Every structure is written in structure tokens, then in C-alpha cells.
Model the fold of this input.
Amino acid sequence: MEIKTKSDLDKIISENFGKLIIVRFHASWCSPCRALANTINSLTAEESSGVEFVEVDVDEADEGFIEEYGIRNIPVMIFFKDGLIANKTVGLRTKQDLLTIIDEVKSK
Done:
């Protein structure tokens, strides 16, 4: 799901409270961003159970929204749990890294 504003994100968080929400900030021209998208797409249904993935194209999104979350480099993933930021990563991650972070955040 692609969003462009903070109000879009707030709505997703309220509608999916209790789920882990991972917001991926990216751009179409960014090679590491595309590689991270492939990693996310490689997750099985079991591996991504209870997780909602959201995408924000930094070239299309509201500039204030990007600034609010301090996005200066991409790709960035922000992990929300119960409406709060539980983790933030910058850069490309392997599938195993991503699964480890998901497990850690879910267990908090």
C-alpha cells in the first residue's frame, strides 16, 4: 500500500492497531530501495503474518511528512507497534536481518 501523507499513515495505524506496521521510505530511482522491495516481497505469508507493509515514495509524498520522520537517506524502514515507533533502520537489509527485527519488535 502506497501512502503520501501523515494522515494516511495515522489512518492505517488506527485501522491496524495491534499489528506490526512497517513503513518503507523509498524512491523509484534507488537501487538499494528496489533490492529491499524484493526482499520484502520474498517473505512468505507465515513470515509476514501480523505485519502490514506500507510504502512511501519520497519523491511523491508530502515534504513535511518526510521531514517529520527525519528521512535523509533511503531506503528507510520504520516499524510501528501499538501506534509507536518501535524500530527504525536505514539502508539495505537481508531477509534474515528483516525477520530478526520483525521478531524482536513483535516480542516487545
Remarks:
- Residues 95-107 form the longest helix (13 residues).
- The chain has one domain: 6-107.
